[in-house]
Write a structure and sequence with these properties.
The protein is an alpha+beta fold. Helices cover about 25% and strands about 15% of the residues. Strands 1-4-5 form a three-stranded antiparallel beta sheet. Strands 2-3 form a two-stranded antiparallel ribbon. It starts with a strand and ends in a 21-residue tail after the last helix.
Amino acid sequence: MRGCIHKIASGAKQSFPSDHAALPPTPAQRAADLDNIVAEQRNVGLIIMQFKDVRPEPFTKEIRCDRCGRVALLGDAEFEEMVCIDSRAGYGSVFGDGNDLLVDLCQHCFKDVLGPWLRVSGPGDRQVQLDNMLSRFDPERHGGEFPGTADAGPQAETAPERH
Ligand SMILES: [Zn+2]
């Protein structure tokens, strides 16, 4: 299965003013504008080859929980804690090869439905885990490979040698 589970990032997208819906310039107007810009740049001794512009982008402003119907608005704490799954089923999937899987759950439903299986850890736990793994790394023994579970603890001495 390919895909990702992600939380909505705060402030990832910005809103744009509602009066931004003016008609885009015609190709002729755009070409004339670019000619004017190039002429202005030449007058001040600059020649630019890339022309920057801004454009509005879509953004998520509201998420409704698929399970309980809770509505979370952009800027709310509940919005930041929504769990959105957007995944594509692969070959052999029980959902059918190539089908899209989508669900938006509030944090409360996420905990209610998956609570017993969720692995919740503190903010620094992953770093401690990574530091422990890295401390077992021996470049002479591992030859540049990252240590595996066989390298951890006393069972490492009885583990078969890998070639
Ligand atoms: Zn919910």
